[in-house]
Amino acid sequence: MVQDRIFGISVLIFCLIMFMETFNFAEKTPWQIAGPAVFPRFIIAVIAVVTLVLLIKSFLQKSDRTSSFSWETFINKYGKTIILFALFGVYVVLLPILSFIIATLLFLIVGQAVLMGLKKPKTIVLNLSISVIMTFSVYLIFTHLLNIWLP
């Protein structure tokens, strides 16, 4: 679809600019394991790869145009996305109040519940496991590997 192609090319240009900006970061100090540009470069690379997949998919898919707009279709298609954006806004507000670990755990648990649902015990266990592992992994990477304090 044309929108996906325009979006994909725009994001790739943005990734290229941001990647080039990481070369202006300060150099790694002797007590750091990795320099300050490592994490941003990693995130930029992940975004670029996912965007390339979207761009390739946009050329392989046939366009399916719908002629009329329907709120029901819009909510069914984008409802979870809207909820996640609102949830992220709440997360940003709560982050300095609750601390990184608590706010991130709550954000991930509720966010995954919105995406996956909580109908089966296996889903609940998976949700909690991923939330705890990701929260503490990011915390440990930032505090111990990158020497960056989190709130």
TrEMBL record:
The keyword Transmembrane helix appears for this protein: yes
Membrane-spanning residues: 7-26, 38-60, 81-110, 130-150
Transmembrane helix found in the keyword field: yes
Keyword annotations: Membrane, Transmembrane, Transmembrane helix
Domain DUF1468 residue range list: 6-151
Pfam families from the UniProt entry: TctB
Stored InterPro entries: DUF1468
Domain of life (superkingdom): Bacteria
UniProt name for this protein: Tricarboxylic transport membrane protein
